[in-house]
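Journal club prep — side note

Before the paper discussion, L.F. wants everyone to see what a predicted structure for a comparable chain looks like in token form. Sequence:
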Amino acid sequence: MDAIYIATGDDFAKAIRNGSTWDVRRTLEDAGVQCLAVHPRDPDVVFAGSRGRGVWCSRDGGDSWRETSFPQPDVFSVAVSAADEAVYAGCEPSALFVSRDLGESWQELEALKSIPSAPEWSFPPRPWTSHVRWIAPCPHNADLLLVGIELGGLMRSADGGRTWSDHRPGAQPDVHAIAWHPRVPGRAYEAGGGGAAWSRDGGETWHPADEGREHDYTWALAVDSEDPECWFVSAAPGPMEAHDNDKSAQARLYRWHVNGHWEPLDRLPQPLDSFPYALAVSSSGLVAGLGDGRLWFSSDKGDSWELLNLRGDALSSIRALAWAAAVIPARHPGPS
């Protein structure tokens, strides 16, 4: 069964394929859901982060939820490690927490706030604060973490968050999204407010990836699980066009070409008048979620697209999404 989990900024939604249409049902209504993460072995286990109400957990694919004992109200990022199943959540003001019992208890990784640049972190719309926009646990090494501060930099820990390196050379300081390649160790990718970048050495150093892209304000990011040279970003001329609902977003989707440059995915009606805030890839294909609630789908890595026919609960916006699919085979118990 194909299903897509969605954070709308207000609530959680699940879209389930039903022939040529997708049935949409919303839960966690008016909870301010900003972000979500799917357990890598069990797609029925989902975590949602909200502004105002902390972290929520579902064990039945988003049909029902319980509020965890998360110690802060405003959550902007959640992630589940494919290496050890630890759950991470990032807040505003910037702070990072980890749970090793699926959200039953939380521990702050306090060293993040001791990074030398921390006093200078500042989110332009609320310059007195900042937040942890993205958390990327390495799927190949449980101790390796990348964290993006909006706005402050891309930080790296090689010891599970006990200590941190400050903003990494070559990365964008206005971090919007980070990803690891699931199969190729060391490959990491970033979309930021000043462009895109990638790393081949486990996030230690970064290299610009901007050739061929018309716009530098990049946001959403997705990586092809088979091909480390194939990745996707959304981009707009700047933050005003991207986030102002009264203007045309003038947005585009791009695919990185093996020859080392971006190519626009022109089979979409580009430029898009609503910003693609979310991208996700699975064996089913590539899906793009727009700020106005539309979902576009490609089964051929962006060469062709279809607008998904949604019915049921309306989607007013899409802020984050993920395929409801396991990315790691389930463990099988050994002989007793």
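L.F.'s comment for the group: The two ends are 33 Å apart (CA to CA). Keep this in mind when we get to the figures.
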